[in-house]
Amino acid sequence: MHIDHVRQGASRAVFATMFAVFVAILVPGGSAKAAFVAASDGFGGFKNVFEVTDTVFAFGDMNKIADPGPFGTLLNPTARVYVMTNQAWAGGETLTDITGDGFNNVSGLIGSGFFSDVSLWTAPLAPGLYDIILDENKNGRFDPINDTVMDLGLSGEFLVGGAGVPLPPAILFLASGLLGLMFKPTRRQLQ
User: Which position among 43, 49, 146, 152 has the lowest Cβ density within 10 Å, counted as fewest Cβ atoms?
Assistant: First the structure.
């Protein structure tokens, strides 16, 4: 008798967990700012330093609440992704994609806002610092409440290298360390 109660309890726990997951996916709620967007290497990994011959990809997660379309918030949220010159974003700025192809439309997977490795900008890239903007309400303006700038605690922008673009400090630090190791005196030289 005791085993039957354990089985029933386990079945109820599994059902409750599945129901909670279902509700969390389909019922919008919580914070209106749970979205993120990041530059990618095209294989799902973060990347924020590119060469002029690379392709810039992005992945992210849209907030299902921000999509104004019918059923878009529940089944298939959509947004626009822009590549913009790096700047301080206050709100109200007009979004104009600098890649030459215009903004990209992204769609989330069914029941979620996740999108993966969308090609944003193909070679040749122009050297400089850039931001990726996720325009969730698709109005062509940056709204800090609804829209997201590439961040995730990284540098907040991505760099395209080339002539005249300074190297990131981490690369300079690594190079100076390697040079120091090359010229480090050996024991024989010290004696």
Answer: 43
